[in-house]
Amino acid sequence: MEQNQYTALTAAAKRPAYVIFKELAEVLKLYDYRDHYFEKFDITRAKFKTEDVEKQLEETLKSLEQLHGNVL
Questions:
Q1: CA 48 to mean position of chain CA atoms
Q2: What angle do CA 23, 41, 28 make, to 5 degrees?
Q3: How far apart are CA 2 and CA 50, in angstroms?
Q4: What b/e readout covers 15-31, taking b as 16+ CB neighbours within 10 angstroms?
Q5: What is the pLDDT of residues 5-63, one digit of tens each?
Q6: How far is CA 40 from CA 23, 34, 36, in A?
Q7: Are 38 and 31 in contact (CB under 8 A)?
Q8: pTM
Q9: Domain boundaries, the chain
Q10: How far apart are CA 32 and CA 60, in angstroms?
Q11: CB 66: neighbour CB atoms within 10 A?
Q12: Per its UniProt entry, which superkingdom is the organism in (predicted)?
């Protein structure tokens, strides 16, 4: 196992389980947004999908950073 993988696993092991589950929920919400985009939006928004998913990604990253800040 590489050092950076070990470091990431060690850091993950130190976080409470509820934080890990919240992180997972945020990531799954992002995948759901991406994968079901056209169930939520009309096909006329197709040209905006990439931009909208990137915005959702930024929101997800901010949310994850807040979770990390609350734990550390």
A1: 20
A2: 15
A3: 33
A4: eeeebeebbeebeeebe
A5: 666 566 666 778 888 899 999 999 999 999 999 999 999 999 999 999 999 999 999 99
A6: 23, 10, 7
A7: no
A8: 0.75
A9: 15-71
A10: 12
A11: 12
A12: Eukaryota
